[in-house]
Amino acid sequence: MKFRKINCAVMFLLLSISIQSNANTLPADLSWENNNNAKPWASPLATKGGKFTDFILTFPPTLRTVGPDSNSSFRSYINANQLGLTDFHPNTLEIIPQIATEWAYGQDGKTVFYKLDPSARWSDGNPVTADDFLFTLDFMRSKHINAPWYNNHYTNEITSVKKFGDHTISITGRVAKPKEELHYYYGLVPTPKHFYKKIDKNWVKKYNWKIIPNTGPYQISKIKKGKRITFERKSDWWAADRPLNKNRFNVDKVILKVIRDTNIAYKHFEKGELDSYALVLPEFWHNKAKGKLYDNGYLEKFTFYNNSPRSSSGWFLNTDNSILKEKPVRIALAHALNFDKVIKTVLRGDYERLQAFHTGYGEFSNKNISARKFDLKAANKILDEAGWQQRGGDGVRISNGQRLSLNLVYGRKEHSDRWSILKQDALKAGIEINLRLQDSSSHYKTIMQKQHQIASLGWSTGFRPAFWQHFHSENAHKPQTNNITNLDNKNIDKDIEAYRAETDSNKRVKLANALAQQIHDSAVFIPSFKVPYTRGAHWRWLKFPDAPGTKTSSTLYSPFGDGGIFWVDSKTKIETKAARKNSTKYSSVNKTFDQYRENTSD
């Protein structure tokens, strides 16, 4: 055997690099926590097996979770199977372990130390190590991923990730924060360093349809483009025996079919081709979810009241538009929209009016803010004073030859009736609203390219109110950012930056409330509705714990994330299909669960 000679200087350099990579020393005074006694929310009666079939309205434009076109609704399925260091208990909001088994806090108030589970594995069998978390920082800072928000956050908000051996790390943020916020804002998910060979200018295109290794209970196993995506449960998942994971993630397969029309999807559900169907929309709950399938007990209905931050749902006004850049027009438009009429008629009184962009965040929500009420007299006065006195033969106002005509883009056909009512009343104030229904993919692209005038949508919620991504001028006037109103206000910028940097909880609350007032005053967002519950129907072979959801459940039928608590009873499935053929009846089921119902409205 031949041995290659190594220069002594090279040997010293290699040794030096090895020592430096593990040279960090843990502080001696750390107090480690684990919260292993957190209460499970699954049922010991749950059984494994079977498949769960659901639908999505559009096929995802990419499997990437960062970069162009990645911010689609499908991303939530992928992210839910990528564990972070810790998570929040869905009922108590206390910190619970995931990849980290223990954590401790640095004296600086902005550093958290984590001990990683040595048994953690990627779906391809490779171990999850400290290097994967260090790589996350490099990955998210790379310009090649074409993701400005991530570039900014991981560059300016997370200042360092340090390694103390293969299974211990620390994360330090830019400023000190309360302990629970350190985990949320500075927490990381690992990125498989062994999988990404090179992050270069071709990364976006190269990884558009790559199935990335993950750490969660399921992995994508089959893709039929434009038709369906299948996830399979890992039979040897490394975290399956964790106390909080037992009796969860029970079905063997999760199949997501692409069905581009909700009415057609409901027909698939009634045929037994889908296992559940969300019935939040009043039209479906009151008009469709009835008949023999329900009367005979084959389909069961659940209403579950939750208590969590509410989606920022409403109309977003693009201030780069020549008409909507005028603040009086924006305020007048808000007064010309009769949302209460929509709630009473189309929505059957089921929904409530959302009052502000951030609601349900406790003291971080400004409860003194109310959405502008429908008031045609006020709308007309404002527009007259703003120079829009003249009207055409059709009643639409005109100023300097320009009609007060605006396009509303929206992505759900089921919303057409509600917007038609608003359109009719707005015309009484001389405002023409043209309804532009788009498929989900086109709707998303239009908004991300800032090509809309008015966009109807709802943003997902977070742990605390988020202002920077939605309202800071850094994200205005350019595509692929979440400031879709293009709000550009230096005073608001200043307070957003102060809010992000503030370490005192009381001061942060005051800043959050002040920012909420400024955003309301800017009139770039018109709140629409909030829904204080989730509800749906399912075939009786889907079984649930006594509480079919958690305090923060947005749906009862989530197979991933903090869900996965239902299971398929194969015996009941066979029995139900036979009963349907021979007309055997069961007791009808229409249950309401209100243990987490809000005592007072926001």
Task: Give the key terms.
five-stranded mixed β-sheet, 20% strand, Dipeptide-binding Protein, domain 3, 18 helices, 602 residues, 28% helix, alpha+beta
Offer a quick outline of the entry.
The protein is α+β, with helices and mostly antiparallel strands and 602 residues long. It has 18 helices and 26 strands.
| Main sheet overview | 5 strands, mixed
Ranges where pLDDT stays below 50 over 5 or more residues in a row are 1-21
CATH topology of the domain at 312-530, which one? Dipeptide-binding Protein, domain 3
User: Major sheet: order of its strands?
Assistant: 19-18-20-13-21
Task: Report the helical percentage.
Answer: 25-40%
- Estimate the mean pLDDT confidence: 93
Which superfamily, in CATH terms, is the homologous superfamily of the domain at 312-530?
Dipeptide-binding Protein, Domain 3
CATH-scheme architecture of the domain at 312-530: Roll
Q: Using the alpha-carbon principal axes, give the shape.
A: globular
* End-to-end distance: 77 Å
Helix/sheet category: alpha+beta
Give the helix tally: 18
Radius of gyration, in angstroms, nearest whole number = 26 Å
The CATH class name of the domain at 312-530 reads Alpha Beta
Approximate strand percentage = 15-25%
Number of strands: 26
